[in-house]
Amino acid sequence: MLKDATMPIFSPDRHAHVPSYVKLTKQPIAGGTYRPLANDEDSNACAPSALSGHHGSKLYTQKSAIHATSDNTSIFISGAGTLPCLPEMVSSGSVSKDVIDNNNQITPSKLQPQQPTEQPLNEAVSVCKKAAHTTAKTLSAAGHAVAKAAKTTGHAIHVAVTAVKTAWHTFTNFKAVQLIIKFFRKAYGPWKKRMRFSYAFYAIVFTLLTSAEVIFLQWGVYSEPTYDKGDEVDQTTKILNSVAGQVTKFVSQMWLEQKSLFLVNFVGLGLIYLALIFVTNRFWIATLLFGTAITAFGVANSIKIQLRNEPIIPADFTFISGGDAGNIASFIPDNSQQFVENAVTVVIWIIAICLLLFLLDRRKCFIYCSWRKPFASAKNTVGTFSRALAAVVSVVILASYATNLGTGGSWSNMWAAKQGYTPTLFDAAEDARNNGPATTFLSLTKAPTMDKPEGYSKQKMQAISKKYSKLANSINKSRTQQLTDSTAIMILSETFADPTRLPDITFDEDPIPNIRNIMGTTTSGTMLSPGYGGGTANIEYQALTGLSLANFSDSMIVPYQQLVPTQSNPYSFNQIWTQKYGESGSEAVHPYYQSMYLRNTNYKKFGFSRLYSLDSATPVEHTEKIGESPYVSDSSTYQDVLDLIKNQKNPEFLQVVTMQNHMPYSNYYEAEDVLQSSVTDDTPDDEHSAINVFSTGLKYTDQATLDFLSQLNQINKPITVIFYGDHLPGIYLKEEQNPDDSFLLHETDYFIWSNDASPSANVKLDDSEAAFSSSNYFMSSAAEHMNAKISPYLALLTKLHEEIPAISRVISNRGGIGLGTATYLQSDGTVTDSTSMSKTQKQLLADYKLVQYDQTSGKNYLKESDFMSVD
Q1: Which residues of 612-646 are buried (b: 16+ CB within 10 A; e: fewer)?
Q2: In this prediction, what percent of the chain has a pLDDT beyond 90?
Q3: Interval 741-751: pLDDT, tens
Q4: Where are the alpha helices (DSSP H) in 364-410?
Q5: Residue 8 near residue 67 (C-beta atoms within 8 A)
Q6: Reported pTM
Q7: I need a surface site. Which of 256, 550, 680, 785 has the fewest CB within 10 A?
Q8: How far apart are CA 225 and CA 221, in angstroms?
Q9: CA 33, 39, 40, 43 torsion: positive or negative?
Q10: DSSP structure class, residue 238
Q11: Average pLDDT over all residues of the chain
């Protein structure tokens, strides 16, 4: 019914009780035409959805008057307008006002000229109704489309499934396939009834595999001894000193010496094995993982011992996490390739056997549990709880054992000590040989930085700051230059060390004539290196920070990997330049991969603006190599440095680490270019060849360095170069076994040189000050060479260098130095120890340790003062 009296169109009251339907016909009228609401010709204009209930029948409406006094059955349409389809009329038999409101061509004024026009509010309501109607139609159409698509998709899936079923039935009906099916049906019975391996069998496998891995790891840290021809050694001694003899002794000392170090290593590996079993809850899968991982660890450990005289430590795994696993593999020497291939074969056998036993063993879970229905029964509840508890407890025990093993007084340390464990972590290789590589590795999982020095407090550090500020002021009175007025280039030359220093090795020509001549005309001397065959990052750390590894705890082996990543604002000498010039104050060049020893992370912490490497955002530009060498040549690296100097806006601190002479030493160079050395007859051929190739690389470094310094002399900017070798290569196998030569394996060469544009050109410090040094003193020595003002920190290092010329973590039998003690040199190169030092030396060393502790493990009280600032 119409409720709006302003626009009466028809009245449904009349004959409401007896509906009457008539066909609409045209009737002429002045000013317009009457059209039927529908006819045969116009029926197609209506939407199918609106006529869905009528299927082509003529459109009828309830016979009622448009006006109260008329029975007209037509609607007046002005002009030539057309009436759209009205679904409501079809469904209800009447025309409502709402329908007409939705028709823009029918207006109230034309239908009822005597009625007033609708208000704007009604017009808005009409628009909303029209929009709602249109939306409903759209959604309805979309619903029909989705339903149709779903029906089509379902039909397609049904057809596809039917086709697959048909194909499968056709395939399985083949006679050959039927025979196979019958075979497996018959085999399924015995397969389902296969035995569950007993826990006793698991225990036997566990014991045998763990013991085998302990022996394999121990075998990898020993090497076959060599004997001079004149030595009279009986066969029994040779057998006992062989690798097999040393491994046998390691195991048998449980009964011969009451030292159960084999048991300590067995427990360490066993806890790892158990954790894998309980976490995976699959014995054979855990066995596969354990056997593969520990075998691979043993191979890597053996190769690292051979090349660097150092076992694998937890910090080494940062190489893998940093994506350097492939790069590390490139360091494998040629004589270890067969060993690696054999180990790969063993690993393949371990994997195959474990997978086979996994299939044959009906016991899938080591501890019964049901994750799908964990609480469906008492058995499920107990099993699920036990499985989860075993996994957690095994991991907790392993973590507790490992983290406490290197901490004196802890439960695992005390238990291991009762079994004969005596840590010697100053020399990790020796510790691995004595205590086992598994124990060495686990004892380093949590490495304390250094012990707290006696008297450490804020007041004590303030007193030290004042003390060395006065010393710096006293020194600076006689100095006229500023460090930041010059560019300082600190060059770590990979493995640079005079090969003629070692006995029993002579050359027809000097491998380093140019550098030897430079060292004779400028500040230079011998550097005491803590490393042999490796440890580059440690020597670099000392040179950049002024801190010494000798002050750290035994377990702090690689600060670049164990310490610096955890520090928020570590100090390094390049910050002297960045404090004045900002980001443009320091840059670094390393022609290898930036994540090696985490240099990309550590250099950012030190404040270097950029590191140019092979894979940095802005890589090194010059990457030429010599012969077949895999490493960038020194001449290319020097050219990158020259480019930086030419483009610099202000003096800089440039950190450079070369790669040309990195091991291994294969046949990289042309045969006619290789230097020939003379060695004793009992020197192994591999060692002799490596010495020749290494010395040839030094010859190329010697010439490249001379050319580099000559080019620096052509630049009208003050430049000072700090050049040093980090360590000797680990190729002197014969010398390693001679206690008299062990100290020589830790001596490299260094010099400090300034170009002609520098006020310190041609300066050479007296040998009493420069003859012996260690890398932690290089910055203070450079400041003295340049006659530059220094900070209180550099004043401490200057005074300490005068009193104790070299400090290092060197293990040597020379001069009475025993295992596990730091090495201190006097000005004449002789060794002294802390107990025989003067009062002044002891006080300086105590202050040095306090400063180092404050920077690395303490509260960093010195940061609040001007201890690091250069006026």
Answers
A1: bbeebeeebebeeebeebebbbbbbbbbbbbebbe
A2: 49
A3: 778 889 999 99
A4: 378-405
A5: yes
A6: 0.67
A7: 256
A8: 13
A9: positive
A10: H
A11: 83
